Every structure is written in C-alpha cells, then in structure tokens.
C-alpha cells in the first residue's frame, strides 16, 4: 500500500499544486493509495508514527513537501524492515532532492516510486540537546549550530520568503537572510570532541555544520564529501578571525566548490560533541531546535530504506 504524507503549504502552496497533479495521475492509474494532508507543523510526524508503528505489512510512505516535511516524517518513523520511504520534492530548498538527484518533474518522481529500480539503505543523524531533560531529534540532511542555523530560524518566520517564492526567486530569500546574518554574526569560542576522543578548540567559530548529505540552505554545498552510505558525519567548521573569509566560504559553497582557505576545516566522525561558550541557534534540516551551548550529534548507519 502507498501512503502519501503531503504538506500542501510547502513552498508557499506549491505542495498543493503538485499534489493535485499527482492525485490525478494516481486516480488514472488505479493504484491503491491513501493520502494524509498536514494542516500544521507536527502533523507529518504523527501521521508517520501512526503508519509505521508495529507495521507488519509491506508499505511505502511517500513524503510530498520540502526538507522540513521529510524531517518530520523521519522523526516520527518506526524503523522496520517492511517500511520503505519515497520522496517527491515540493519544497523551497529541496537539499535532499538535490543530493539524491531526484527528477524535478513530480510525475517522473512518482513513476520512479511506483516502479522502483533501486532501494538504498541510508544513514540518518540524531541530534541530542537539553540540560535537565534531553531531547532527541532525527535529521536526514544536516544539523548545525551558529550562523547557518540562525539563517534557518530567520527564514522560518520570514515574510519576504513567501513573497520571493511566489515570484519564483525563492533562492534569493536564503541569500538576503544570509547576508543580513553575515553582517550581524559574531564569532564564538568553543570546541568539538570527535568520537569521544579527539578534542579540537576554536577561538572564532561562526558555525559548525554536520552533514549526512552535502547541501543545506537551498544549495550551499558545505560538505562536498558527505556520503549518505558511509556511516559517518561530515563536519564543516567555519572558524576565522576575519569575517570577510566567510564570504569566500559561502560563495564557494554556493558554487559547489570545496573551500580550501584557512578559515574552514572539515572532519569526519561517527559522533561529535559540540560546545559553544554562549548559546547559539541550532537546526536540524532547517527546522529550529532553539539556542544551545552543547549538542551531541551521531550518525545512525544504513537504517533507512529509501527508493532513489
Ligand atoms: N499545513 C501546514 N501549514 C503550515 N505549515 C506546515 C504545514 N505542514 C507542515 N508545516 C511546516 O512547514 C514547514 C516547512 O515545510 P517544508 O519543508 O515541507 O517546506 P519548505 O520550507 O517550503 O521547503 P524546504 O524545507 O525544502 O525549504 C515545516 O516546519 C512543517 O512543520
């Protein structure tokens, strides 16, 4: 059975337009399916939980929306061998779709899911945070602390984002908010501990971003070497006294190039502890996890079966 979890509001209503097309194709083809349309944040997680918990039959859960919708589904998902995930991108950033090289045409994506050639067992990440009560949040693409997360926080509440998406120049929203954050960003002292053993200190960190997939923020390739099947996190640390170096890093990432300047460092690990001397914004797949001083992030290897 195919279960569609649809965010009709993704990309300012594009989700609904795409879903209407998919629905017509599904009805014409006679495929048996059920659709669950979200009405608010959190719905996709509940639908995914109810559809996968204790599941004994072979089911395909198909996300229709952006990276935030996939994130919610993953967070509510019960991992079991009979459930497979499919994805039809309908968001504004679509970093997961970019990394998986999914077709831009939603009907082609649907056909791929209905007639799959390949399944992949994919890694995902888990972020843990909180002092007295520890919260855990799964992520599919990336999780970060600092300036990149502050951009995501701002975009979640940005009115300009809606307007620019309606004008079909949504990428500009990321750039505009990014530039605003760049002007106000302040670096912070902190350290990371890789796999519980290797401690590395930073005096001027702007952001630390951990990746399962290479892109975030709608096309910034912060972790060009990220591989969703290697059981590892790719970590990108932007640490430099000169803020101007950040501009080069952001431009290189936007063009898909790996930055080699002094300010940026890359690491790989299975788990990482990140400490910042003051609370900084944290995100998973572009969704806010508030401001934190300390977070733990680990990679769960090859547990998610997905049609690609
Ligand atoms: N019906 C709904 N109305 C409003 N918000 C919703 C609804 N359903 C889900 N959401 C929330 O919308 C947010 C963004 O959704 P989604 O990621 O699908 O789209 P997007 O932001 O346009 O795409 P991307 O994340 O790829 O940039 C998520 O935080 C999700 O919780």
TrEMBL record:
One Pfam family this chain carries? Answer: YegS_C
Q: Could you give a single Gene Ontology term from the biological process aspect?
A: phospholipid biosynthetic process
Record's keyword terms, sorted: ATP-binding, Kinase, Lipid biosynthesis, Lipid metabolism, Nucleotide-binding, Phospholipid biosynthesis, Phospholipid metabolism, Transferase
- Spell out the protein name for this chain: YegS/Rv2252/BmrU family lipid kinase
What InterPro entries does UniProt report for this protein, alphabetically? Answer: ATP-NAD_kinase_N (IPR017438), Diacylglycerol/lipid_kinase (IPR005218), Diacylglycerol_kinase_cat_dom (IPR001206), Lipid_Phosphate_FormReg (IPR050187), NAD/diacylglycerol_kinase_sf (IPR016064), YegS/DAGK_C (IPR045540)
NCBIfam families reported for this sequence:
YegS/Rv2252/BmrU family lipid kinase
For this chain, the family text in UniProt reads:
Belongs to the diacylglycerol/lipid kinase family.
Read off the PANTHER family from this record.
SPHINGOSINE KINASE, SPHINGOSINE KINASE RELATED PROTEIN
Coiled-coil stretches are none
Lineage, top-rank taxon, reads Bacteria
User: Which one of the record's GO molecular function terms can you name?
Assistant: kinase activity
Which organism's genome codes for this protein?
A: Lacrimispora xylanisolvens
Q: What are the residue boundaries of the DAGKc domain, all occurrences included?
A: 1-130
Q: Which cofactor does it need?
A: Mg(2+)
Q: What is the lineage of its organism?
A: Bacteria, Bacillati, Bacillota, Clostridia, Lachnospirales
């Amino acid at each position: 059975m195919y279960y569609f979890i649809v965010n009709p509001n993704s990309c300012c209503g594009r989700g609904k337009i795409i879903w209407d097309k998919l629905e017509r194709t599904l009805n014409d083809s006679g495929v048996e399916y059920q659709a669950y349309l979200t009405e608010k944040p959190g719905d996709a997680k509940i639908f995914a939980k109810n559809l996968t918990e204790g599941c004994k039959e072979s089911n395909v859960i198909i996300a229709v929306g952006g990276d935030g919708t996939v994130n919610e589904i993953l967070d509510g998902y019960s991992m079991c061998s009979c459930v497979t995930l499919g994805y039809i991108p309908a968001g504004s950033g679509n970093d997961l779709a970019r990394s998986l090289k999914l077709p831009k045409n939603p009907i082609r994506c649907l056909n791929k899911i209905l007639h799959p050639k390949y399944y992949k067992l994919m890694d995902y990440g888990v972020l843990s945070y909180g002092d007295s009560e520890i919260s855990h949040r799964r992520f599919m693409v990336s999780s970060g602390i600092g300036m990149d997360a502050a951009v995501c926080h701002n975009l979640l509440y940005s009115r300009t984002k809606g307007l620019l998406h309606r004008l079909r120049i949504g990428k500009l929203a990321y750039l505009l908010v990014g530039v605003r954050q760049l002007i106000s960003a302040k670096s912070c002292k902190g350290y990371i501990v890789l796999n519980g053993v290797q401690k590395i200190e930073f005096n001027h960190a702007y952001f630390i971003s951990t990746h399962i997939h290479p892109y975030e923020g709608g096309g910034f390739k912060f972790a060009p070497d990220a591989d969703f099947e290697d059981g590892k996190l790719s970590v990108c640390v932007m640490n430099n006294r000169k803020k101007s170096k950040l501009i080069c890093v952001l431009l290189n990432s936007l063009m898909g190039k790996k930055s080699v300047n002094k300010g940026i460092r890359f690491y790989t690990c299975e788990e990482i502890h990140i400490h910042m001397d003051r609370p900084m914004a944290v995100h998973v797949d572009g969704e806010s996890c508030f401001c934190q001083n300390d977070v733990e992030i680990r990679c769960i290897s090859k547990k998610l079966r997905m049609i690609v």
